[in-house]
Amino acid sequence: MDRSTQGLEALRARLEGEYTRKTPGSRALFERARTVLPGGVTYHIRYLRPYPPFIEKAEGTRVIDVDGNVYDDYWMGHGAHILGHTPDFVREAVCEASRLGSHLGYENPLAVEYAELLARIVPNMEMVRFTSSGTEANMYAVRLARAYTRRRYVVKMEGGWHGGYDGLHTGVTPPWRGPESLGLPEEYLKYTLVVPYNDADSLEAALKKHDVAAVVLEPVLGAGGCIEAEREYLREARRLASEYGALLIFDEVITGFRLALGGAQEYYGVDADIVVLGKAVAGGYPGAGAFGGRSEYMEMLDHIARPNPRERSFHGGTFSGNPVSIAAGKALVEYLAANRGIYEEANSLWEWFRRRIDESCEARDRPCWATGAGSMVGIHFTRSRPRSAREAHEARWGTGVESLANLYMRVRGILYLTEHTMHLLPSLRHTKKQASAFLEAFEAFLDDLEEALGGRPWTT
Ligand SMILES: Cc1ncc(COP(=O)(O)O)c(C=O)c1O
């Protein structure tokens, strides 16, 4: 074993020792969980080595584990809590709605009011339908695009994550093609094309060659490492989709209500045809998903205009439009609409943060690079600043650094996911003091890492 590997292992062992001492309750829960939950978790991305902290409660921008350890939370319910965990006014709206019935199963006035609100604030969303997750919203959006264009192919980006829907469950991780999961036949992906992110030429080649119904993209890659699209690329994607007759679907499950009130369309000044929302759309409560666009497209779902089911695009779901998710989302979005100043403040805080991370990396001969936009931050241990998920993967200078960073920060009371990709989704309520504490811990990590490695291998 060479000296740097030995150094890294010693650092990991020290950190794991510290973590284990602080978290006996989580350890015990994980042992129980392993017997009844596959892998001991409810979603594999929530697993952290050697075992995840089991979180008992959340307060604002912090979470507290079963052993009473308090963490600054940079995961924020997968990015759903853009105003911190469960603001009082959202909880009150939910209590009031659920007193009248948690799930009415009939049309309800709240859904109409919320649809009206979304139509006012989300550009190009004249009509909307609610789903129970972002995955579902993407699935129905793709089906709608196919129904409208009467075409088959869908283009998605390498590193793009749109949930586990078959038709988009490819090209998320290396080698960027083929099914991402067992149980997903290759044939199901026959009409899905994967192209590199931030690469308009590849997009055009795909559009030229196939009858493409939709181009689906995240305006800022989320799970792919919080990597921003170049503005010019987004404009080109818009132009090319129109030129070749495909619909442009923005998956704004993360960027929606986060980059700006009107999401990435407003932030970048680029129009989408169909917008997919999730996470914050239900105010931090379950059942978070919606998709919408101009009435010309949404009319494909209209059973009155199209009484024959074979002549329309299906959407539905037992819990779609339920008053709990709707009341929560509506309360949150109303608050954001009344407090637009919050965006400028938060976006400039995280812009500053990215700059400071970059300065810290620069001062150490560049072990890392910051990416992102607004309050989405990626930190990559790469030899260059990645413009795509592929670059973020291929330009890495070491292995296991990401997971060590996660453990290091966790021991210091800073929590985020995943241990493979350092991407942060702070709320708009995180403070500069918290951001500074993160920077301090991160710089300490870089210094301890260098010491463990016995030098700066990223420079060679
Ligand atoms: C951009 C994006 N789209 C879609 C999804 C899937 O949403 P859900 O997990 O609610 O199904 C996610 C979830 O992380 C996401 O980040």
How would you explain this protein's 3D organization?
With 460 residues, the protein is an alpha/beta fold. The protein folds into two domains: 3-84 and 342-459, Aspartate Aminotransferase, domain 1 (Alpha-Beta Complex); 88-338, Aspartate Aminotransferase, domain 2 (3-Layer(aba) Sandwich), CATH 3.40.640. Helices cover 41% and strands 15% of the residues. It has 15 helices and 16 strands. It binds pyridoxal-5'-phosphate (PLP). The site of pyridoxal-5'-phosphate has 16 residues, from helix 6.
- Overall domain count: 2
CATH superfamily of the largest domain: Type I PLP-dependent aspartate aminotransferase-like (Major domain)
Overall body shape:
globular
Structural class: alpha/beta
By CATH, the topology of the largest domain is: Aspartate Aminotransferase, domain 2
At the first level of CATH, the class of the largest domain is Alpha Beta
Figure out the total of helices: 15
Overall number of strands: 16
Low-confidence stretches: none
Key words describing this protein structure:
Aspartate Aminotransferase, domain 2, Aspartate Aminotransferase, domain 1, 460 residues, 41% helix, 2 domains, four-stranded mixed β-sheet, seven-stranded mixed β-sheet, 15 helices, single chain, binds pyridoxal-5'-phosphate, alpha/beta
Task: Provide a quick synopsis of the model.
It contains 15 helices and 16 strands. With 460 residues, the chain is of the alpha/beta class.
List the helices and strands and how they pair.
Blueprint: H1 3-22, H2 24-36, E1 55-59, E2 62-65, E3 70-73, H3 76-79, H4 88-99, H5 109-121, E4 127-131, H6 134-149, E5 153-157, E6 192-195, H7 200-209, E7 212-217, E8 220-221, E9 227-228, H8 231-244, E10 247-251, H9 263-268, E11 274-278, E12 289-293, H10 295-298, H11 323-338, H12 341-363, E13 369-373, E14 376-380, H13 389-394, H14 401-411, E15 414-415, E16 422-424, H15 432-453
Parallel strand pairs: 3-15, 5-6, 5-7, 7-10, 10-11
Antiparallel strand pairs: 1-2, 2-3, 4-12, 8-9, 11-12, 13-14, 14-16
Helix pairs in contact: 1-14, 1-15, 4-11, 5-11, 7-8, 12-15
Bound molecules: pyridoxal-5'-phosphate.
Residues 78, 133-135, 138, 161-163, 218, 222-223, 251, 253-254, 278, 288 line the site of pyridoxal-5'-phosphate.
